Amino acid sequence: MELRRSFIEEAAFCCALGGAAACAVSIALSQILLGIALAAMLASRMRWELPRHWPWLFFFVAWTLLALAFSDAPRAGFPQIKKFYVWLFLFVIASTFSKLTQTRWLVLAWIAGGTLSSLWGIEQFVRKLKAFGGPGGDFYTQYVASRITGFNSHWMTFSGQMMIILLAGFAFLLWARPERWLRRVVFVCLAIIASALVLAFTRGVWIATGIGAIYLLWCWRRWTVALVPLAALALFIAGPAGLRARVTSLVRPHGELDSNMHRVYTFRTGVEMIKAHPWFGLGLERVGPHFKEYIPADLPKELPKGYYAHLHNIYVHFAAERGLPAMIALMIFLLLTMKDWLVRLYRGAGAHEWLLRGMVAVMIGILITGLFEYNLGDSEVLGMTLACLAMPAAVSRGDIPPSLGNGA
């Protein structure tokens, strides 16, 4: 009986590892493996680990259900309720992982999957360059509306995943002391992933990745931080005209193409929604249908080109959709978890340093990207983020102050 239970628990771990790793290549496979891992955990009666700051997370979930109840169309919000299935990664990883080497396997699996996705994305870029960049063609105009996606359906999802992999992998290189051959392989893979991320033309993710990398370099060798702006300047000068146009679009947009005005509309309209419905928001999936009703009076009613089903900002969107209490509770949970990692690093992390540094950098990237995109609305990015939240505590239970703690 004990042997059978041990086998099922090992199967739960393998499926949890596979499910989290598959986030980088296939959301369908990821969710199938997550379901098998959950079934194995239930069959073996494994101990479930709850987040240390679980009351804030549970408050977020409970308030989301209240927002659904107060919605003018509760049935329309069920897709967001179903997305809580992905949140189970937090508990599954925290419960099945127990060794630092297991987190190493996951990060290396992400790097492998991210490299394959990036190679496919680079191939997409070459094809689009040929298709859009011929004589008389306007590559920039056509490409910004149809960028590389790797194995995903959208460039923002692809870029969010590559950012997580880059920052986690960079921390692995700096602090994990891998074997020489592995260090070289990881370096080449991260260079490929970074190239694809540059070619994805996602400005907000560029900024977030850069700040996450600066954090890592500052903690490693402070003088190396000076290399970041120099590398960015060299890339800007030596890069293709389309890349320079994308960078300068931050201050000089190409009309509606670069979405700057679109972001102004979504942000300001979201603020109006929050003012009108501060407690429970408009309800799940109700931001898009009611968007035009809350456009500020000083903005033209004709919307710039863009996607308006969400608000391209996790802080504004969660507050407008579910109410300020839900958004604040989620942010407190994330920030308190990151604080735990920083406290451990301050006290001395030992062999865990690469993991903790990497996860802090990833969380910095997620929170900054969230200013420009509804990144936690993507199941692929959400699943990887939750695995990052769970790993530090899963491998340090009992010997360091955990960011995820007492079992249920």
What are the SSEs and their pairings?
Layout lengths: L1 H21 L4 H18 L4 E3 L2 H17 L7 H5 L1 H13 L3 H33 L6 H6 L10 H21 L4 H20 L3 H18 L6 H12 L2 H8 L11 H17 L37 H9 L1 H24 L5 H17 L9 H16 L9 E4 L1
Antiparallel strand pairs: 1-2
Helix pairs in contact: 1-2, 1-5, 1-6, 2-5, 3-15, 5-17, 6-8, 6-9, 8-9, 8-10, 8-16, 8-17, 10-16, 13-14, 14-15, 15-16, 16-17
Sum up the structure in keywords:
mainly alpha, globular, disordered C terminus
Summarize it.
This protein has 408 residues and is mainly alpha-helical.
Written account of the structure:
The chain is an all-alpha fold and 408 residues long. It has one domain. The chain is 67% helix and 2% strand. The chain contains 17 helices and two strands. Strands 1-2 form a two-stranded antiparallel sheet. The C terminus is likely disordered.
Give the number of helices: 17
Number of strands: 2
Low-confidence region ranges: 398-408
Counting helices, strands and paired strands, the structural category is mainly alpha
- Beta-strand residue fraction: under 5%
Largest sheet: 2 strands, antiparallel
| Rounded Rg | 22 Å
Strand order of the largest sheet: 1-2
How far is the first residue's CA from the last residue's CA? 23 Å
N-to-C series of helices and strands: HHEHHHHHHHHHHHHHHHE
Shape: globular
- The tally of domains stands at 1
Calculate the mean pLDDT score and round it. 92
The helix content, as a percent range, equals 55-70%
